[in-house]
């Protein structure tokens, strides 16, 4: 039996009536796919299948398959070969391509992280994922604060507890309300604040959702999201969830369609990935997500906090937010 001190969620079962699960994604540098795979196999067994110098899969572990890839789709999909072919350069499989990809991997690794994509696990099993994290730390993996160029993040994909407009709005409201405190406690790295990946939601959308009279059904919530913030580059990315609920509605909007993976989860991507800090643990960012859901589950506290925050949302801030969106500035 696994002994875990990862805090439980206020809603223990997911939308399908089964215990909720969490997928973890960790971004890092300073370690190649083989080294990442070894850290997984040392904890959970399995075998590594290399797909290229950029990526591979650890199969048949105790918890399922783990994906490893350089977080640069143009490289992992080998679309760079199409670009070379367009200018008359064709590179067939073999030593030349292997050498080229090795160089590309080393250069890209200066700013583009390798990513370990863990299969969804029950909350108690997060302890096993944290054991892998410790192994990666010992193996020399580098995290967010190792370089000013490393805008690396940790991501949780948390099963939704209920698929309804009211429930999703309650969690979204709680996230908006706790966002400043989370950023302060997490000390979100400056490089990540400057990156486009985790820009906070526009103020006019925040005010729209916090309005106590806002009680949308799922279709209205999705439409509002696509109107106010049609991008996946948010600290709580709802496009995978909304694409799972209504794929056609989302994929017909001006969003990053080819990067959206529909799934019934909260895609929480705000935290730093401090994988090279031996005193850091997955428990730290997980605790922040538990705080979000705990507030969402307390209707009175949520309403009170929402009214207080809404009182600080001036008409000027909301106008400026909408003006920036019209200019395409987010």
Q: How much is the radius of gyration in Å?
A: 21 Å
Report the biggest beta sheet as strand number plus sense, adding barrel if it closes: 9 strands, antiparallel
* Portion in helices: 40-55%
Q: Pairing-aware structural class of the strands and helices? A: alpha+beta
- Unreliable segments of 5+ consecutive residues: 72-89, 107-111
Distance between the termini: 47 Å
Q: How confident overall, as mean pLDDT?
A: 84
Task: Please explain how this structure is put together.
With 330 residues, the protein is an alpha+beta fold. 44% of the residues lie in helices and 13% in strands. A hairpin with a 2-residue loop joins strand 3 (55-61) and strand 4 (64-70). Mean pLDDT is 84; it is low at 72-89 and 107-111.
What's the short story on this structure?
The chain has helices at residues 33-44, 73-76, 80-86, 95-108, 126-138, 165-186, 190-194, 203-210, 218-228, 239-245, 247-251, 283-296, 299-310, 315-326, and strands at residues 21-28, 47-50, 55-61, 64-70, 114-117, 121-122, 154-159, 236-237, 265-268. With 330 residues, the protein is α+β, with helices and mostly antiparallel strands. Strands 1, 2, 3, 4, 5, 6, 7, 8 and 9 form a 9-stranded antiparallel β-sheet that branches.
